[in-house]
Amino acid sequence: MLDADFFRRWMAATAASVDREAERLTALDSPIGDADHGSNLQRGFKAVVAVLEKDAPATPGAVLTLAGRQLISTVGGASGPLYGTLLRSTGKALGDAAEVSEAQFAEALRAGVDKVMALGGAAPGDKTMIDALVPAVDALGEGFGAARAAAEQGAEATIPLQARKGRASYLGERSIGHQDPGATSSALLVAGLAEAAGE
Amino acid sequence: MSDDKLVGIVLVSHSAQVAAAVAELAKGLAGGATAVPVAPAGGTEGGGLGTSAELIAAAAAAVDRGAGVAVLTDLGSAVLTVKALLAEGDELPAGSRLIDAPFVEGAVAAVVTAATGADLDAVQAAAADAYTYRKV
């Protein structure tokens, strides 16, 4: 079973990896975006860790809804409402249970990913965060390690794709050959789950 | 139009200068529309390029007169942030609506229409209709 502390560890692990990889995320965002993805997410997840320490939410659902709200408030780019909606919707789907099973979490995360697709209008293959998140959710039944591997493969598989959403889509065919920054940061988020689980 | 409450207008841009200038332009072109509550919500709280949920929420609260708030945006994170705030349910005043309209032309149409005392549906229709103003 997964308790509130697991979800706090997830957010802390993600904040640490985003901090470590911020320059790489921004470098990926330079040729096809506006070169702010790393710094935006770095600021957002740092604020998430701070608010979780301050407010100490007691349930998995409360941890994720608070984290999502904080991302919407603090990121300043499109990744704020997108990641914010992902975590908030996942948290709301978890309800107010003190502990949730991995299966319940997988179902809630799928609901969160669906909300992100509805918000941004992206589908798999559009060269977005969805290309890492959907394979991760699909693999979650086999464990957090499998989800991490699937997200990383999904992010790498965005390289040959042409962007159809977001600023990168203005570049048309010139977006081909670059790994999508959003899919890359989504792989970090999923890797944080495996880290929180000790895998 | 059962009373004299005016629809509020919020203009959300990645740039504080663009949001403020479009607000000024729209009010200027609307002539005597100084009574229409219009608030820009541009850039990040730190003054950089981007979108601030806090600035949007503050602007919407500032222009809310109880007749609804029309929110116009430029693109990308501005659109997504407003949608995310609306999905929250309690972040923006009741009757707030994201308007699908071109930013500059839509803002002018929205302010001119709101100045007549029109309701939110009419303001939305006028702003959206700005998409049809072809230039060539």
UniProtKB/TrEMBL annotation, chain A:
Pfam families: Dak2
Gene3D superfamilies listed in its UniProt record: 1.25.40.340
UniProt GO MF annotations: glycerone kinase activity
Family annotation (InterPro entries): DhaK_L_YcgS, DhaL_dom, DhaL_dom_sf, Dihydroxyacetone_Kinase
Every DhaL domain range: 5-195
Annotated keywords: Kinase, Transferase
GO BP annotation list: glycerol catabolic process
GO cellular component, one term: cytosol
PANTHER family, per database record: TRIOKINASE/FMN CYCLASE, TRIOKINASE_FMN CYCLASE
Annotated protein name in UniProt: Dihydroxyacetone kinase subunit L
UniProtKB/TrEMBL annotation, chain B:
UniProt xrefs under PROSITE patterns: PTS_EIIA_TYPE_4
Keyword match Transferase: yes
GO BP annotation list: glycerol catabolic process; phosphoenolpyruvate-dependent sugar phosphotransferase system
Domain PTS EIIA type-4: 6-136
InterPro entries: DhaM, PTS_EIIA_man-typ, PTS_EIIA_man-typ_sf
GO cellular component: membrane
SUPFAM superfamilies in the cross-refs: PTS system fructose IIA component-like (SSF53062)
Signal peptide start-end: none
One GO MF term attached to the UniProt entry: phosphoenolpyruvate-glycerone phosphotransferase activity
Keyword set, alphabetical order: Transferase
Stated name of the protein: PTS fructose transporter subunit IIA
